[in-house]
Specification:
By secondary structure, the protein is of the alpha+beta class. The protein is built from 5 helices and 9 strands. The protein folds into 3 domains: 1-39, no CATH class; 47-99, no CATH class; 105-197, Homing Intron 3 (I-Ppo) Encoded Endonuclease, Chain A. 26% of the residues lie in helices and 15% in strands. The N and C termini lie far apart (89 Å).
Length: 198
């Protein structure tokens, strides 16, 4: 039994049963004048991209006369100025009911307290350490809570590990009760003195 029944094309070659032409004749029709889109430019009246002459006509902003899309009446900056003037955008910045001022505090889903500083959020314990030692923490430095309470951000409860691996190793020792939690003391005074020397 034959899988596909073939008929003959006008050129004499075999074609599939429901096809109008063979593959070679079909590709010839797509090239040149046989192609239905041949000779049409997107801005010509015969082209499907041409809609009521809107694509040919240039449109300009009402205020600053910059060229814009035919769908718009103003450019982006003029539209923003209009909205501010009419009071549409009253919820920007401090007028927004969800706006948080500098120094605001929130608690993350992991339970850490974050503080807003310079329009950005930073973990409170890291911020306190940075302020105390007088420099930004280097990438890899980890602030550890000695008593295990991540909301207790007192300076005498914070210890800075210079590398993530050391902190992970210490946490593993705590997990298997191989070391006492309070066996380390805060090292912030040492870091602050080292920061002053540099």
């Amino acid at each position: 039994m034959v899988k596909y029944q073939h008929n003959l094309c006008k050129c004499g070659k075999k074609k599939y049963r429901y096809a109008k032409q063979c593959q070679k004749c079909y590709t010839k029709t797509l090239k040149g004048k046989g192609n239905p889109m041949y000779g049409t430019h997107r801005y010509e009246k015969d082209s499907p991209g041409f809609i009521d002459g809107r694509t040919l006509k240039k449109y300009y902003c009402e205020n600053c006369k910059i060229e814009i899309s035919y769908r718009a009446t103003r450019c982006g900056s003029c539209e923003m100025k209009r909205k501010l003037k009419e009071g549409i955008l009253n919820n920007i910045g401090e007028n927004n009911p969800t706006y948080r001022k500098e120094g605001s505090i929130r608690i993350s889903s992991e339970g850490y307290r974050f503080i807003k500083v310079n329009n950005g959020w930073i973990q409170e314990h890291r911020y306190f350490v940075e302020v105390y030692i007088g420099r930004k923490l280097i990438l890899g430095e980890v602030v550890h809570h000695i008593d295990g309470n991540i909301l207790n951000n007192k300076l005498n409860n914070l210890y800075v590990f210079p590398k993530i691996g050391l902190h992970v190793g210490f946490e593993n020792l705590l997990r298997y009760n191989l070391i006492d939690r309070f066996s380390i003391k805060s090292n912030l005074k040492i870091l602050a003195l080292n920061g002053l020397k540099e």
